[in-house]
User: Fold this.
Amino acid sequence: MLSESSSLLLPSIHELLAGSHRQAQPGVARDAPPIGGAPLNLDVGRHQPHRRHLRLALTKEAPVTSQLSADGVCSSSRLFPFTLAQVFAAFANADRLATWWGPDGFSNTFEVFEFKTQGRWKFVMHGPDGKNYPNDSVFLEASQQRIIVRHVSPPNFTLTITLAEADGQTNLHWHQAFDDPRVAASLAHIIAPANEQNLNRLHTALLAAAK
Assistant:
């Protein structure tokens, strides 16, 4: 049961990253955890050392706009036709956040959600393959203008979500900074579409709530 102060956090890809750094056994395919939010297609092929075959496909109406910099920062922006209060509520309410966080096909179980500065966010993502992916994070800020999540379980990164009012709509900027740029580079083909998918699911959730 979540408390009134329940928080929000970011889907963990720590098992994916850990797996990408483990030596693979010849002929053994690995399980691939999630990362994002619109229809998710997992294409896991024959595994080779230090290489994971995973493709996340976006819908036609959701082109990839995420950009990954050399210093390990993945950023994306999206204009939502909803008020700032509506968008913020989709993050601040644990029950609503759990319905859209992550790629399509994944669900979430929030164990701790303390949506406040220094509040903890601990949850498990459940993949369509039946696998569970634990996540552990801390909210560094939880205001209507900015939400900052520190992912304390591997891979380590800081996610900053900035919200700004724009004539009755809301500009959302997503800034995901990995501690190790090499980790980000190795997962660039996964992170970018996954983040876009996450924003697609947010849009769908906002539409449903507005009806």
User: Anything to note?
Assistant: The beta strands are 67-68, 73-80, 107-113, 120-126, 132-142, 146-151, 157-166, 169-178.
